[in-house]
Amino acid sequence: MAQLVEMYTDGACRGNPGKGGWGVLLRYNDAEKTLYGGEKLSTNNRMELTAVIKGLEALTKSCQIKITTDSKYVLQGVTEWMPNWKKRNWRTANKKPVLNIELWQQLDGLVAQHEIEWEWVKGHSGHPENELADQLANQGIDEL
Length: 144
Prior knowledge:
The chain is an alpha/beta fold. The chain contains four helices and five strands, in the order E-E-E-H-E-H-H-E-H.
């Protein structure tokens, strides 16, 4: 498979729900690309999901990717919960519809196109790329 693409993602919200932003740092060899955006009304979890979706959408072909996130919601959702949600027709163990279902379904389709390794880092702990993704997410809010 091709060389590794590194992706660092973060979401932010001022108020939850409130103004939301997402940020992505993509790195391939020596090249870096940053992406960010915002929504007038969102939640932190929606912004975390959106960051990963926008990062994956920016890739033009199937890749080997290492995605680093500080969101346990995204990480556990993709690696643990989603297979069971799909078996239950996108319902939780309590038979309730999955929250943010349209984003999870979009992410599911994008994840299937790549070979992905997931890594969790503690947010706001001085991890340089995670800090940059956080700054980008906040820039997304600031520019609304």
